[in-house]
Amino acid sequence: MLKRMREGGAYFIKGVMLIVVLTFIATIFVVWGVQSTPGDLVRRGIVASVAGAEISTEDYQRALRDQIETFRRIFKDKFDEKTLDALNTKEQVLEQMIRRILVLQYADRHGIAVTPEELREEIQRFPAFGGKEGFTRQRYLQVLQVNRLTPERFEADLRRELLERKVDALIRGAVRVSDEEVREGFRQLNRRLTVEVAQLPAGDEGKKLADKITVAIGQGKSLADAAKEAGVTTKTYGPFPAMSPPGEIQDPGPFRQAVSVLKPGESSPLVVGQKASYLVRLVKQEDPPQEEFDKDKAVFQDQMLLQKRAQVFADWLHELRAATKITVNREIL
User: Fold this and answer.
1) 130: helix, coil or strand?
2) Which of 27-41, 224-238, 318-332 tops mean pLDDT?
3) Is the pTM of this model over 0.90?
4) Which pLDDT does position 1 carry in this prediction?
5) Of 180, 187, 265, 259, which Cα lies nearest the Cα of 222?
6) What are the tens digits of pLDDT across the range 242-286?
7) Cβ 82 vs Cβ 35: under 8 Å
8) CB pairs under 8 A, 24+ apart, for 136-143?
9) 126 and 139 in contact (C-beta within 8 Å)?
10) Helical (H) or strand (E) element with 191
11) What dotted CATH number matches 192-286?
């Protein structure tokens, strides 16, 4: 709803958006200080309790309906129950509601708040509330009425969203990347590798062969010689970009992850894929030229900062969740 209203104008006002759409941002009515057991939650129709703050069945079902409606618009006639299950929608909606409570509780404990001025300025930025003459309170009230919203409800939702954004900016804003991190990250992603690979069958057969080869390597034999004794041939690939394994590798994800931690001359433990297993030795690596780094540094630094901030925020939220008493009534999901 808030997103659509920001995007503006007539489409929203005509009432096409009478169905309120909140993409993973649900309205939560919070009841403080109520301790609940799973059985108690079931009796009272509560989906979850987060340090005493409760998510009612009504709020959860509304958020779920909103998200399903969003998916219907995205996938259109391809949307069905299988898609709903594949996207793990029910769990994702609940997790987002829990996250919102955790963030709001954190803001409350640390005195982070949204001022009336900040709220007013944000409302006035919505294109839906502006016409040729700009924002007017009359138009604001008319738009809310068309969409069956009261100013109190709308402003409470918006205040919560702004508060979430404040906390988000506070956590992410403290993250920096050093020149050394940028240089090493660029090197890791853009180096070119040459590897020696023993491709083995998937499953137990591959594991038995890998054990035999690994023992021989421990006795001082090369990967090629140890593999030959086990009846396995090796093949050399490269040089190739570190993030783009050769096309003949059937499981590029696990392969790429294993190679990324090797130093020249080192061999990997067994790399287990769905289609095959591998033992890999890094023969050599070639670092990207300095001029390539200088050319791409600014863009790469921005991308690395965004990724690091996202990871730090996710880790912070995980720790916050782990330290909070959360009770979930999964019978309702």
Assistant:
1) strand
2) 224-238
3) no
4) 61
5) 265
6) 999 999 999 999 999 999 999 999 999 999 999 999 999 999 999
7) no
8) 143/5, 143/12, 143/13
9) no
10) none
11) 3.10.50.40
Pairing of strands 130-131, 271-272: unpaired
Q: How many CB atoms lie within 10 A of CB 250?
A: 14
291 secondary structure, DSSP code? H
Query: Under 8 Å CB-to-CB from 315, ≥6 apart: which residues?
Result: none
Query: Token pair 């998937």 is at which residue?
Result: 202
Mean pLDDT computed over every residue of the chain: 87
Q: How far is CA 314 from the centre of its chain?
A: 8
Q: Tell me which DSSP letter residue 154 carries.
A: H
Please write the tens of the pLDDT for every residue from 23-53. Answer: 333 333 333 333 345 566 666 789 999 999 9
Q: Which amino acid is at 108?
A: D
Token pair recorded at residue 190: 């853009």
- Per-residue pLDDT, 37: 53
In this prediction, residue 143 has a pLDDT band, given cuts at 50, 70 and 90, of very high
Task: Return the axis-axis angle of helices 89-109 and 290-322, rounded to nearest 10°.
Answer: 80
- What dotted CATH number matches 2-175+321-328? 1.10.4030
Token pair recorded at residue 240: 């190739």
Q: Which residue reads 């289609």 in tokens?
A: 275
pLDDT (0 to 100) of residue 33? 33
d(C-alpha 11, C-alpha 127), whole Å: 11
How many Å apart are CA 193 and CA 282, to the nearest integer? Answer: 7
Pair 234, 248: CB distance under 8 Å: no
For the chain, the domains span 2-175+321-328, 192-286
